[in-house]
Predict the 3D structure of the following.
Amino acid sequence: MGVTLSGAGATFPYPFYSIVFRDYMRKNPGVRVNYGAIGSGGGIRSLRDKSVDFAASDAFLNEKETASMGAEVVHIPTCMGGVVLSYTLSGVDSLRLTGELIADIFMGKITRWNDPRLAAENPNVRFPDLEITPVYRSDGSGTTFVFSEYLNKVSPEWNREMGTGKALKWKAGLAAKGNPGVASIVQLTEGAIGYVGSEYALTLQMPSALLKNKAGNYVKATLETISAAAETDLSDDMKLTLTDMPHPHAYPISMLTWLLVYEDQTYCGHSRQEAEVLVDLLNYIIGPDGQKLAAQVNYVPLPLRAVQKTQRIINRIHFAGEKLSTAPDPEIAIVNVLSETETVGDHEKTVLHEKSLVDER
Amino acid sequence: MKDKIFKGLLFAAALAILLLTAGVIYVLVKQSLDVFHEYGVFGFIFNAEWDPRPETEEYGAWSFIIGTLFTAFFALLLCIPFSLPVALFNGEYFKGYKISSFVSSVVDLLAGIPSIVYGLWGFYTLRPIVIQLGVNAQGFGIFLASIVLAVMIIPYASSLSAEFLSMIPDTVKEGAYSLGATRAETIRHVSLPMASSGIVAAYILALGRALGETMAVTMLIGNTTNVPTSLRDTGNTMASVIANQFGEADGLKLSALIGIGLLLFLITAVINLIAKFIMKKLSVR
């Protein structure tokens, strides 16, 4: 009784975490979970200072950060998301884009909608002779990071001139703060195109472009296509980027978001009870209840194989060498997730999950 | 005894304000030391490069300083044709009439509208008009931000100017009339010259307001990092870049943003001091 956990970090998963923590607290009276959406950098710093129990980040720790943490930190993926290209162009209901085209639009190299390269990709669309207004994030953001990480992979020019980062040195367009800022400019400006977090775009049902993925298919961002990006060989530590993935239905700008915790929970002022609650919370988030909540707010639930791998990572967390995990056997967890996804009512996704389960066996 | 307590309380309140200001300056200076140390004071001020990517990190304040001065001075220019007539209306033509107090309370009401409301008005109402005018394709930029700023500073410029105009003794103006001057001539050759330093001070204070305005400008200026060279350009002001980028910033970038805050503090302080100085000169005369 009376355990308080606190965490800090990324803003992208904040809506999901706020409802999943609230739900957890309702089911476990006496436990309080506080989360401060102060940005990944601040979250990681707070974890290093041991002022929080967990940090949240949209990017896994790089080598330098890992070394600075002082002890082994494990990455627990909690859900997936994607970056959607939303646009406003009257008379154009369906827009197909490739990574190269996106890169050239945001570098200011394609400046008008009737550019022949856009027409070549969209033979059935009549584009107006109108200026393209790219809209990007003015604040540092994990969304910008994933967006630029994807373009870095698919466009050598982007790699040379722009690079990857939470904030970039932009050459064209306008900027606005947060997903709402970008979305409102895009929605009210004829000829604008901007990138927005999938959870935001799906909730608002914003018009979005179909992107050509690595397999050559044009895919729309949905919970299923983003989830398909994780249908791949997952590394055991789950530290991976999911942009430009080979699955035929994979949405090319997909991502994981993580909670970071120390593998050994024995550190100053931390009780065994707190560590146990923390592990229980992590199990709850990746379990069927937590993942169902993710889908409700348009975050993408982890596919089965990812849940299984994550379960093993959570099982590694210990308190002075003693096991903490109270989680059920991974196999049982999988069956639970399966039945829960069916209740979400999404036939296609369930099929996808069943297929992966077959592969696994 | 009561008097002593009251005096003590007043003294404490005044001291608290002084300490608070000193504390703000101390924190701004302390937190921005890193960036001034890295680039030097002038190296930071006169550098237009702002590159937040970790590998090529470089921070300079120049594009934001220019964006701030550009929008503020253009807004000042735009507000003169509206605020000066209002000041003459209230402080000269209809001084003491009911209509004057009505007009001046309406103008003062403009000062009470929250800045986010001005931002929304600019975003939803003015921006389509600016696009129609053909200023640029999206409407955002220096032009739109300046128009909204101009409306926001009208009350500051006009009510103080009206105050100074109404302070001119009637005897002086009656002297002008007795010499056969018309009302317009009296205003041009007597009232305006006599109140001129007060009016200038009023506009300088209004300029100070325009320099620091954040919310409305952030919504309308486009938030791009470049030195704006025309009214069609988008840009960023010192206040808007802080509002935009403070959230996720750390390390040198955080220090650079606080450095910009310090520079903005100094610019507005100097502007206010100039206005004070001009007003003091007037009252001595």
User: Anything to note?
Assistant: The interface with chain A takes residues 50-56, 123-124, 127, 137-140, 218, 222-225, 234, 243-245, 247-250 of chain B (CB under 8 Å).
